[in-house]
Amino acid sequence: MFFRKKAAAPSPARRDTGRAVATRLAANPQMTAAEVSGVELFYHLDFLDAAQCDTLIAMIDADRRPSSLLSDRPESDFRTSESCDMNRYAPEVQPIDESIADLLGLPHEKGETMQGQRYAPGQHFRAHHDYFHDTESYWPQIQASGGQRTWTAMIYLNDVAEGGETWFPQAGFKIAPRRGLLLAWNNMNPDGTPNTLTLHEGMDVVEGTKYIVTKWFREGSWLKRG
Ligand SMILES: O=C(O)CCC(=O)C(=O)O
Ligand SMILES: [Fe+2]
Questions:
Q1: Which residues cross the membrane (predicted)?
Q2: How many A from CA of 65 to the centre of ligand 1?
Q3: 85 - beta bridge partners?
């Protein structure tokens, strides 16, 4: 009898989603594929205009609360930003929410509620994976709410005077906040297993305030049908 750490099982559904989204993004002339090793990562320099960014920033400022962390071992210094949920049916949010899903070619039902995030100087989100770990106690609840996360889309709502870069230390990629820029990456490997190289960090803001929105997509439907 051998006892060894269970390897993640390949997933044809996640593999197919990964391929379909990457093919769609690669075919979009407004998207650029980032030169990184081992992670599928694309960006769009001007996904939102200044007025859309300002609207979302005002909503985040009005509704922010300390960010939370889904983990069996939360650390107090790990994610020090503030967050809020962006109601997908709010008239200012809905067109943006749907345009992100359309950009990736995913049904909006697979998208979690868009999250607004605000980082003051000294605040950060330490290195983490966006995918869920099937060894954590939250896993059954994740499976019941659409399963594993596949793609992440993030939009920077403003320029930041210093700091606040998003850093992928293992893939060797770092990008500074730039108003309106959308970054999207596949959290899975080509075979549909979690890609450890997607480890990333929201680095400390040094000067200014950083505002972003993040949209995580699940393999199944996150939205409950009523
Ligand atoms: O703030 C950043 O640059 C990264 C945010 C992030 O990783 C997330 O929201 O999952
Ligand atoms: Fe993340």
A1: none
A2: 16
A3: 115
ipTM of this predicted structure:
0.99
In whole angstroms, what separates CA 165 from the centre of its chain? Answer: 14
Q: Which residue has the tokens 């859309």?
A: 52
Crossing angle of helices 12-27 and 94-104, in 10° steps, is: 100
202 close to ligand 1 (CB < 6 Angstrom) = yes
Q: Is the shortest distance between the CB of 123 and ligand 1 below 6 Å? A: no
Nearest to 185 by CA among 11, 27, 22, 9: 22
pLDDT value for 202: 97
Residue closest via CA to ligand 1's atom 4 equals 202
Give the closest residue to 171 by CA, choosing from 146, 147, 198. Answer: 198
Beta bridge partners of 116: 84, 213
Is residue 211 lining ligand 1, measured as CB closer than 6 Å? Answer: no
52 alpha carbon, distance to own chain's centre: 19
Cβ-contact 31, 182 below 8 angstroms: no
Residues 218, 77: contact at Cβ < 8 Å?
no
Hey, what domains does the chain have and what are their CATH numbers? 12-218 (2.60.120.620)
